[in-house]
Amino acid sequence: MRRILRRREIVADDWVHLGEEAADGAALIVPLVELRKDPGRWREWSGRLGVRLTPVDRVEELAQELPRLDLVAVEFPNPSDGRGYSQARLLRERLGFRGELRAVGAGVRQDQVFLLARCGFDALELAAGEDAQAARRALERYDVAYQPGSAAVGLRAQRFSAQ
Amino acid sequence: MYRYDELDQAFVDQRVAEFRDQTRRHLAGQLSEDEFRPLRLRNGLYIQRHAPMLRIAIPYGLLASRQLAKLADIARRYDRGFGHFTTRQNLQLNWPNLADVPDILAELAGVQMHAIQTSGNCVRNVTADHMAGIARDEIDDPRPYCEIIRQWATLHPEFTYLPRKFKIAVTGSPEDRAASEVHDIGLHLARDARGDIGFTVLVGGGLGRAPAIGQVIRDFLPLPELLSYLEAILRVYNRHGRRDNLNKARIKVLVKSLGIARFREQVEEEWRLGRARAARLPASEVERVRSFFRPQPYETLEDFDASAGREPAFQAWYRYNTRPHRVSGYRAVFVSLKAHGQNPGDMSCEQMEAVAALAERVSFGLIRTTHNQNLLLADVRQSELYQVWLELAHHQLAMPNIGTLTDMIACPGLDFCSLANAGTLGVAKQIQERFDDLDYLYDLGDIEIKMSGCMNACGHHHVGHIGILGVDKHGEEWYQITLGGSANGFTALGEVIGPSVPKSEVAATIERIVELYRTLRAEGERFIDTLRRVGLAPFKESAYATHPAAA
Questions:
Q1: Res. A44: pLDDT tops 90
Q2: Are the CB atoms for B267 and B232 separated by under 8 Å?
C-alpha cells in the first residue's frame, strides 16, 4: 500500500489511480483526458472521484466538474516544472476547491514540499524513493515567509498578507 | 539602507540551514548532480570551468562598509583574494570550495546578506539606478520599491520554478541608468495627475539570444497595486511561457509570440480576477521600507569647484570620475574598477577593505555597485574630494576613465565561465593597451564598449555603442563587432557590421572605427550621435580596411 504525506501525517493512501488495481466503489483518481472521454461513466462512479491534471491543463475548465470531485491531483513531472504551483493557487483561491489537493509525480521531492504546501496542497504523493520522514520534516524548514500562503502551513510571521 | 528585522534574519538563517542540508545530501551521494543543480543555482552557486562560482546578491547595488569588508574577508579566506562585480550589481567569487559554501552563506547572513536567487529560473536580484536618491532629475528613490519587490520575490511559493530566469530593474529618473528596457520587467517611477506615485511598466526586454527591447504594458500602475500586478504578469508567464526549449523560454518570447496587445489583455484579465488574493502592499509597509532610505544627514554647504588650481591629474579625475549631487556641497565619486591592466569589474580584497574604510569616513558608510561594473561613493563632501582621490589613487582605483572607451563592460569569459565561447579578459587588455593614452581617450569622449564571451550576453554587447561578442570558429576565438547599441535613454540594439575578426585584430578594428569617427564628427558630437547621423555604412567599410602599418 502506498503511503502519502497528508497534512503532517504519513498515512496509507486510500485512493487509487486509474490503471492500478481498484475494487468497485474505490476512491479513484482519473486523468482529465479520461474524464472528458466518457463523462457519463464517471458521473455514475459509485465511489469517491478525483481528477489528475498535467501541467498543460487549464484549471478554469474544471469549474463545472469540481463540485463532483473529492480530489484534484496535480502532476509535477520534474522539480523544475513550476506550472502546478499556479494550478494549485487557482484551484484553491479562484475556484474555491476545498477537497484534497494532491501533488503527484517525479517532481514531488522533499526540497519542494514547503512551497507546495504554501500553494495549497494538503496531500503529497512523493516521488519514488523519496524519504517520507525527511519530507515531513521539510515542511518545517521555515517558520517565516514573505508572501501570503495557505494557512495550513503554520508560520509565526508573514510579511505580506492577501486582502 | 534597509536593515533586516527579525523576519528577514530568521529567513536567511533558515535558508542557510536548508542549503547546508542539501549540500550534505549531495556530498553524501543522496542528491545527484542533476537533482542538486536547481537547488544550488537558487543559492547562487554555479559549477564553472575550474571550480564552483558563487554569485552573491547585492540588492539594487547597495552595500554598507561592514558588508564590503565582509566580502573582502570571505574572498581572502575562502577564495583567491579577489571578486568580480557584475552588470547586475552582484559580486562573483570564482574559486570557492563546494563544501565551504554553506559556511560562506552563514557568514553572509551574519551581515544581512545572501546569495538567494542570483541564478536559476526565478526572480533574480532587483537592480536600480546607481544614482538613486542623489540624482537631480529623480522623480522618486527606486530603492524602497526594489526592496519590497526583493522580499515579495524571495522564495515565492508560486514563482520559484519559472520557465526561465526573470530580471526586474527599477529606475526613478527620466535618464535610464539601470538598462531597465532590456529587463524582463522594467519599472519607471512616475506620478499621476494627483501627484501619487506609481510606475510605467515595461515587459519583455532582454538580451541573450534574440535580444528585445521592453514594451509598455501599462502606462501607470498605482503603487498599492505593485505586487498584485507583478503577480499577474508572473502568473501568465509561469503558466504559458515555453518550457520545451530553453532558448525560447524567456518572457520576451511569449510577449513577442502573442504580441504586446494580447499579452496585455491576458495580464489585465488575470489581474482583475486575481488581485483580491494577491499580496497586498499597505501604505504602512511602504512607509516602513521608505524610512530606511531617508536622505542622509547632510551638512549645509556651498557648491564650489574643488578642482580649481589643482594639478591636471586631479582635474581629469574630477571631471571624469565624479558627478553632480542633488545636495549642494557634495559630489558622487566613482571608484574605477577599470584600471588598465586589470580585468573590468575585478577588485582585490585589499581594495575592498580600503574602500569600505574610506566610505565609513567620507560617505556615510555606504557603497554602491554600478551596472557598469564600478563602485560609487554617493555622498562625498566636495572639500574632501582631493583626499579621496589621493587615497583611491594609492589603491589603483582612480583611473580617470569613467564614461570613456576603456570604462568597458566585460563578462568573465572563457577564462572562467563554462558557457563562454571566447575569452574577454585578454581582449580587454588588448584594448586597454591600445587606448592607453588618456588624452586620446578624452578626445574620443563618451564611448561605451560592452563585451560578452557568448550569446548569453552577460556583457550586454547588444547595447554597447561598440559591442563585442566572442564566437568559436573551429576551436579558435573570433569576435563579432556590433555598432549603434545603447541602453540609456534611447535604448537600441546594435547592428553587426560584418564578418567576425580574429582575436589579434579586435583593438585595431576598434581603432579604425573610432578614427573614422574623429574625421566625421561635428563639433562636440558624441560617437553614438555621429553613428546615428551618418549611418553604419562608412564604419563598416573602414572597420575592415587594412591598416597601413599592417599591410
A1: no
A2: yes
- Enumerate domains of chain B plus CATH numbers: 6-58+86-110 (no CATH), 134-290 (3.30.413.10), 312-394 (3.30.70.3340), 409-550 (3.30.413.10)
Backbone angles phi, psi at B523, to 5 degrees: -55, 120
Segments of chain B with pLDDT less than 70 = 49, 547-551
Q: For residue A71, give how far its alpha carbon lies from the nearest alpha carbon of chain B (Å).
A: 20
Q: Widest CA span of chain B, in angstroms?
A: 71
pTM of the model: 0.96
Q: Give the sign of the dihedral formed by CA B1, CA B6, CA B12, CA B16.
A: positive
Euclidean distance between CA atoms A123 and A80, whole angstroms? 19
Give me the residue from A83, A143, A159 closest to B238, CB to CB: A83
Note whether B10 contacts A157, CB cutoff 8 Å. Answer: yes
Give the closest-approach CA distance of A17 to chain B in angstroms: 25
Query: Mean pLDDT across the stretch A40-47?
Result: 88
pLDDT at A22: 84
Best residue in A56, A118, A144, A163 for a mutation probing chain B (most B CBs within 10 Å):
A144
In tens, the pLDDT along B230-264 reads 999 999 999 999 999 999 999 999 999 999 999 99
Q: Which domains does chain A have, with CATH numbers?
A: 3-158 (3.20.20.70)
d(CA B246, CA B452) in angstroms, rounded, equals 19
Which of these, B403, B473, B415, B392, lies nearest to B445 by C-alpha position?
B403
Sheet holding A100-104, edge to edge: A9-12, A3-6, A123-124, A100-104, A71-75, A49-53, A28-31, A16-17
Task: Give contacts of A145 with chain B, Cβ < 8 Å.
Answer: 11, 155, 157
